Task: inverse folding
């Protein structure tokens, strides 16, 4: 199989360029110059975000295909733009490639990138390609725009605000667990396959975020769920300035999660609270806007669930359990790279 030594850096870049077909009207100059050139619109603010993926830390090439990896690498960046109410326009990528990387792997990886570029009308407008001694390294930076008065941030939630989340939670975390522990075959149950797919092919909630941004609703705070519900909720609480109450009965989960939890004797609520890599939107609105929000989401792809309320009790996260009891929760149970609490 051809590997990258035969092509060299410039041959590789030319090969990448020929695979990237999506153009954004905002990008004046894409691959081929020293910088990409972006034309911004009046009355907008630019949003910039970057995310790195390191082999063995964030992905395992035994369980994710090159195409899925390309899709996921870009998706997690798009999710950050969605988290602030923006529209993504342009991305750049840095690749650290081991000498043994095959051109077939890279073709498939770029095909994954290109398919996401097409879905969300993003131009991959440049990058950098270097050798890496051992492991594959990917960094993508993304640039988007939001209307000046419609940038949603993590700060701004107030006591009495209502907490909402899109989609279902913990599918991805359970999918990862299945990949790590099981010998997953194509004959695995459809539930297991659905959970694994959620882990390998997350969907960025751009449509839902755009609905919110174009509406007149006051979104008082928003974040995308990457480190688990509790940990990300504590960011909306200003870490420990405010508190929150969650209603166990309202936490959204899929049939697939319920089924696998039943089979394995797991408590789905624990998974939902700690999760990780859900890439759903978690946000707060004022109590008086709840009805408007629910009717707005009739136009969305993902469902939205009303899961709780912000309180004025500093750092207190409380779960109202289905059995009527209250339980104190710890925010520190999600993912933290340098504590290695969950993923390794
Ligand atoms: P420079 O030396 O000026 O940094 P490079 O030779 O690294 O330029 O890159 C040449 C062009 O190819 C630039 O426009 C750069 O953005 C683009 N490029 C480099 N690597 C990649 C890649 N992996 N994917 C897409 N574009 C890339
Ligand atoms: Mg360079």
Result:
């Amino acid at each position: 199989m051809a590997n990258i030594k035969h092509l060299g850096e410039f041959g590789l870049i030319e090969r990448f360029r020929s695979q990237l077909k999506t153009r954004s009207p905002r990008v004046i100059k894409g691959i081929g110059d020293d910088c990409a050139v972006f034309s911004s619109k009046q009355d907008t603010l630019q949003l910039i975000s970057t995310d790195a993926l390191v082999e063995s830390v964030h992905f395992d090439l035994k369980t994710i295909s090159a195409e899925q990896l390309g899709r996921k690498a870009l998706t997690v960046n798009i999710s950050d733009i969605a988290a602030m109410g923006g529209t993504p326009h342009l991305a750049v990528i840095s690749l650290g490639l081991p000498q043994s990387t095959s051109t077939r792997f890279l073709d498939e990886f770029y095909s994954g990138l290109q398919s996401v570029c097409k879905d969300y009308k993003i131009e991959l407008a440049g990058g950098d390609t270097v050798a890496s001694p051992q492991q594959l390294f990917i960094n993508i930076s993304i640039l988007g725009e939001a209307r000046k008065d419609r940038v949603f941030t993590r700060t701004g939630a107030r006591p009495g605000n209502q907490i909402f989340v899109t989609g279902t939670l913990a599918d991805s975390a359970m999918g990862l667990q299945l990949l790590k522990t099981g010998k997953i075959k194509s004959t695995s149950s459809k539930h297991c396959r659905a959970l694994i797919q959620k882990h390998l092919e997350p969907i960025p909630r751009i449509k839902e975020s755009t609905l919110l941004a174009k509406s007149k609703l006051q979104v008082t705070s928003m974040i995308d769920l990457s480190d688990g519900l509790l940990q990300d909720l504590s960011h909306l609480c200003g870490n420990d300035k405010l508190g929150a109450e969650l209603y166990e009965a309202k936490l959204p989960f899929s049939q697939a999660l319920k089924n696998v939890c039943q089979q394995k004797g797991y408590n789905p609520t624990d998974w939902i609270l700690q999760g990780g890599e859900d890439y759903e939107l978690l946000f707060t609105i004022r109590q008086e806007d709840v009805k408007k929000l629910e009717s707005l989401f009739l136009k969305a792809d993902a469902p939205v669930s009303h899961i709780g309320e912000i309180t004025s009790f500093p750092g207190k996260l409380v779960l109202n359990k289905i059995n009527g009891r209250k339980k104190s929760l710890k925010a520190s149970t999600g993912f933290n790279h340098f504590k290695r609490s969950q993923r390794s």
Remarks:
- The first strand starts at residue 27 and ends at 29.
- DSSP finds ten helices and 13 strands in the chain.
- The chain has a mean pLDDT of 93.
- The longest helix spans residues 66-83.
